[in-house]
Amino acid sequence: MRATAAIVLALSMVSGTLAPRRVEAVASKTTAPRALAREPRGGAQRAADRVIERRVRGAIRADPFLAVAAPRVKVTSRRGVVRIVGRVRTAKERSSIAFKAGQNARVGRVDDRVTIGDGVARAMR
Known about the structure:
Layout (H helix, E strand, L loop, with lengths): L1 H14 L16 H7 L4 H20 L10 E6 L2 E8 L2 H13 L5 E8 L2 H6 L1
Parallel strand pairs: 2-3
Antiparallel strand pairs: 1-2
Helix pairs in contact: 3-4
């Protein structure tokens, strides 16, 4: 009797009927990004983003080549992703600004939305 019970127990554990199964939740590809975007940011994350913004703005302003372009570029940060938006005169200014933004150690990624061209000068011609 004991041998039969031991065999039945061993077979059921091998087949997984009595052994607890591990179930893992897998995030859907469509809902995971939206859930992350709605996740409230803590005070520490907002403070870190402000520090990143200040450092990137300071690096851009400190470069004498970018002194004219710096006031026309807006720098924002959210969860370590730096977004730069604005208009500069040359491609070299644009690439220099993106490079300065990426040099900061805490920057995860740079979202470069800087456009090239001086709209004011074109409108006056």
